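User: Quick one: structure for sequence A, then sequence B.

Assistant: Sequence A:
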Amino acid sequence: MTTLKATAPSPGATTFAQETASDAALRRFLHGLPGVDQVGAEQRAASLGTRSIKTESKRQAIDLAIRMVDLTTLEGMDTPGKVRALAAKAMRPDPADPSCPSTAAVCVYGDMVGVAREALGVSAGSTAGRVHVAAVATAFPSGRAPLDVKLTDTRDAVEAGADEIDMVIDRGAFLSGRYLQVYEEIVAVREACVRADGSSAHLKVILETGELQTYDNVRRASWLGMLAGGHFIKTSTGKIQPAATLPVILVMLEAVRDFRDTTGQQVGVKPAGGIRTSKDAIKHLVMVNEVVGSDWLDPDWFRFGASTLLNDLLMQRTKMQTGRYSGPDYFTLD
């Protein structure tokens, strides 16, 4: 289980005040970022993806990956019963093994936040040492709605008790070069995450990298999300392919590394979509360690958005403990 770090003021409001003062200034800044060497990024990601780790390290990596999972259900056919079952699995992924860690969060639509909180046994004001509730908002997955609708969507989820908000950026505005509009929307959504008592839900900014077309755009969108105060930058909604790819994660990790070097502010990264196996998860953890270092090897700073990954992690974990594989139906199917 994880605890959320306290919300800090947005570095974009101070360190980069001039760069975010106008659309022209923001455009100059984002287009002045170093370009991404596509061939180099893909080759390095492929190289890191071949690294192997030894048995004890693998065991630790699997447990860490479980702790990093945002166990997710985002379907139109979601029911309270399905969310309750998901919450139970998040708390006790392997009921037969009490040593198995809990996941970081359950991620649901905003109208299911109350159901998830109740199923998790969350009391008012309780945050430390428990599975968190994340809610998607801002007209997920398209992001195509007026700002007032997006803010209402966010406030409703926060008031229902969401610990974390996963928002989507307006990719049409971004790809049209309306960077200040995207920046101001993220700032407004972050403000909508603040509760009446002054506490705040953490904000994950979904870039939907599969629609951004170039690695340069991924880098620009990453910086835009961080400048506006996102606590995490997230690859995808899981509804668009390609979603989380190793080269994209490499570019995003380099962005959060450079952002911390510049501002002193650490921002998390969440790959989501297409990560289904333990091997996939471990490749990502190796990349995190190599690119940004061990500071990010923590559920407060790195998450997996996934629905099927957890079962494979549990299967691999059982294999390492017992020497034999359990069938895929040994664990609950989501």
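Sequence B:
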Amino acid sequence: MNRLKAMEIFVRVVQAGGFGKAAETLLVPASTVTRALKELEDYLGVTLLNRTTRKISLTVEGASYFEDCKRVLDDIDLVESAFPGRAGRAHGILRVDTTTSIARHFIVPKLHDFQELYPDVKLFLSTHDHVSDLFEDGIDCVIRTGTPADTTSLMTRRLRTFRWVVCAAPSYVEKYGTPTDIDDLAKHHLVGYISSTTGRPIHWTFDTNDGQRHIRANDGPIVNDTDAYVSCGVEGLGLIRAASYIVAPLIQSGVLLEILPGVTTPPELVSIMYPRNRHMSPTVRAFIDWSIKTFSDHTDIM
């Protein structure tokens, strides 16, 4: 038994909340995870995890051993990161979670650059619109828009900002006309987008001389997926308010028309977040540095 590898697997099982999810994030068969844990418990002579059909939980001995394992693994990473050899370079599996639109517009188009820079890193990229629990899902870092809610257990690095753009298909404008100001929006169909946090449609926010103005957007179809949302706009089902980096190419090609170009919206933040540890692994640091450069190099045409 490779005790160090078994410790890594044990920590991942606890963080992921189960054997199956740990196996997925480690990219190994579930049987490998199960066998490693059994061999580790046999070697230590204690039960580390209480197992049921629905969940796992740490025993008293397991909780103590878990903290010790994390400290040992962190110390090993810290020592290895000080050397220029392979141990100090970015390598191994990197688990990143983001939204589909961010992956499509920022990460995937430049992913070949990352692979050339760090050939020893195997990227496991997942896409969700909800905010992942890094420890439960076994994720190393996430990229999200908006103001981070958790600043106690997570470190945050700003990647860029973008603006919201109200737009519509030419067919919609031809049929319903073009709103001339914010008040005019009440006369139009506004496609709604469901918040992954509240489960309710997100209001459109605008900056005015009297402060911020919020408009309810639920007079048209209501969706919970960015691609479906933009498609509703393209098909002329109503006005949409989308990120500039998403709709810029569609406006440039004439598929969508920008509405109310003189009205400003609060800038939106894009951040990369990762667990607040004592130190950062070379692999996570490499991805964060690459992301900062990649996002700063990306310019919208609007």
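The chain has a mean pLDDT of 86. Residues 46 and 273 are 36 Å apart (CA to CA).

User: Thanks, that's what I needed.
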